[in-house]
């Protein structure tokens, strides 16, 4: 480091007294002696020189084969081209490998936090200008190699910080079954398009329920895999602990096929160190349409929570009874720590989410988007004001918690490990546990405008992740499976999809897929729960 001591750069960046000012910011007012101040100033200047040196080095970017997979007709869709309000972020076409087998002939859309080289990304915000990734996310390359045709990126909610579908700066997304109702978030656009039948598969991201919540609301099968099963390289991160990528489709088979295509170890992503070798999984081929001999636990705390709507509870309970008819052993189970999930997720996410939003995330290997960081940093009065209240709230909460509870994150993660261990113990006895994915069907969208009450913006999402968020912290695989309809609490003549959440032990995706496939094979979910569902005039193109 001494080679940088005499660099003129440091004199411009570090002023006398900066050392003392930095220490005062953490409450240390007598941390160094006066006689030492000059030398610490010199050392501080040196590390700034090192920082400037690193910034001047050329970036390292994963190679994307643009000749093999050219991007065609990349454009922001017109009003006439949009679906369900504003489901599309950008439309384009990338033809998959004609020799690919798993996903040949299928169409795929990507949540707008998934990097596609040459395609501008919004990440649901207008607080910063759109940036254009220089390399494809790993899941994009793998899906194309499997033969899928990618048809666009789809709206995600503001910095992926909401389970509503009206928070994106690019516009509101409506439920495919009823205009004016939420498509869920934060993978809102992709779930609406898949639920409607316009696109076969979406790849989403899930940090608190962002695959499963919109899948539940839109009548999709959505899988959040075990943490690290699917690479997160080239995707906008909420927090490395919570980051999960996974498929959304209309059938369990398509979810399994997509999982085979995109899962497996990635040399760039240290989250995937426990995963299988890429290309060796057989989730789709191994699907079983029988649950005979399977032991299924009905999680009492997931059903009896005060927020769970009676119609949703009844619909999911009827679906669970279907497992018993198919030969599974079905029993009630209790895990009281499940009820601590929302609190543990909230604290963990506020700390880590704030670090990420402020550009302080650290502690893992990977390839990251410097284009995104350059567009986002630093925050200013102007850019902060443009954030949606949920994103503002994350930063405000996180800064306060860091200042007032410096040991809280450590204890939170200890309890998270306790909950994870408790689930794992439960999965030694039960193959899967089940509960409602969301406590209600899709709520109505809010016509929120910048300057309106922050609470009015946040209220529609409150409590939605009661059963989903904890499994992002523990990393367990969890799927939302559509199992019927229930009436809206706003208008009981409006019938909306209900999702059942299936959870299993770490790396036990096959058990979830098998149970879901067996239930799906034996039931037509659109005819379950409400006899006159066919009479509703649906806003879909099924």
TrEMBL record:
This is Amidase signature enzyme. It comes from the Eukaryota. PANTHER family: AMIDASE, TRANSAMIDASE. Residues 100-513 form the Amidase domain. One of its GO terms (molecular function) is catalytic activity. It comes from Aaosphaeria arxii CBS 175.79.
């Amino acid at each position: 480091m001494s080679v940088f001591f005499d660099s003129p750069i440091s004199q411009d960046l570090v002023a006398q007294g900066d050392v003392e000012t930095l220490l005062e910011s953490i409450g240390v007012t007598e941390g160094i002696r006066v006689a030492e101040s000059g030398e610490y100033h010199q050392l501080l200047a040196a590390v700034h020189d090192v920082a400037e040196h690193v910034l001047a080095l050329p970036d390292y970017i994963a190679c994307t084969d643009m000749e093999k997979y050219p991007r065609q007709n990349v454009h922001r869709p017109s009003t006439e081209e949009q679906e369900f309000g504003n489901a599309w972020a950008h439309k384009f076409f990338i033809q998959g490998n004609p020799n690919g087998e798993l996903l040949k002939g299928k169409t795929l859309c990507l949540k707008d936090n998934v990097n596609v080289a040459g395609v501008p990304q919004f990440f649901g915000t207008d607080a910063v200008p759109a940036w254009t990734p220089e390399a494809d996310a790993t899941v994009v390359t793998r899906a194309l190699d499997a033969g899928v045709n990618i048809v666009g990126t789809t709206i995600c909610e503001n910095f992926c910080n909401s389970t509503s579908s009206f928070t994106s700066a690019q516009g509101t997304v409506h439920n495919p079954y009823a205009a004016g109702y939420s498509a869920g978030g934060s993978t809102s656009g992709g779930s609406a398009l898949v639920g409607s039948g316009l696109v076969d598969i979406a790849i989403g991201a899930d940090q608190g329920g962002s695959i499963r919540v919109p899948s539940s609301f839109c009548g999709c099968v959505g899988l959040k895999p075990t943490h690290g099963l699917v690479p997160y390289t080239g995707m906008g991160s909420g927090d490395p602990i919570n980051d999960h990528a996974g498929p959304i489709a209309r059938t369990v088979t398509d979810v399994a096929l997509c999982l085979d295509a995109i899962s497996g170890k990635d040399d760039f992503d240290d989250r995937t160190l426990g995963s299988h070798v890429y290309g060796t999984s057989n989730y789709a081929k191994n699907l079983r349409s029988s649950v005979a001999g399977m032991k299924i636990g009905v999680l009492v705390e997931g059903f009896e929570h005060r927020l769970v709507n009676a119609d949703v509870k009844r619909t999911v309970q009827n679906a669970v009874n279907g497992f018993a008819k198919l030969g599974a052993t079905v029993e009630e189970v209790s895990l009281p720590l499940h009820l601590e999930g929302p609190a543990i997720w909230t604290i963990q996410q506020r700390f880590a989410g704030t670090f990420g939003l402020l550009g302080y995330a650290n502690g893992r290997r990977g390839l990251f988007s410097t284009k995104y960081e350059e567009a986002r940093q630093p925050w200013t009065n102007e850019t902060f004001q443009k954030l949606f209240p949920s994103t503002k709230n994350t930063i405000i909460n996180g800064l306060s918690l860091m200042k007032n509870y410096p040991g809280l994150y450590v204890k939170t993660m200890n309890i998270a490990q306790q909950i994870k261990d408790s689930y794992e113990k439960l999965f030694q006895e039960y193959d899967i546990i089940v509960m409602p994915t969301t406590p209600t069907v899709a709520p109505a969208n809010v016509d929120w405008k910048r300057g309106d009450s922050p609470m009015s913006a946040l209220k529609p999402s409150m409590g939605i992740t009661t059963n989903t968020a904890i499994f992002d912290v523990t990393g367990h695989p969890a799927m939302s499976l559509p199992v019927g309809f229930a009436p809206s609490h706003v208008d009981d003549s409006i019938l909306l999809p209900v999702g059942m959440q299936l959870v299993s032990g770490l790396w036990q995706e096959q058990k979830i897929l098998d149970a879901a496939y067996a239930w799906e094979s034996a039931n037509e979910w659109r005819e379950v729960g409400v006899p006159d569902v066919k009479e509703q005039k649906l806003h879909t193109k099924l």
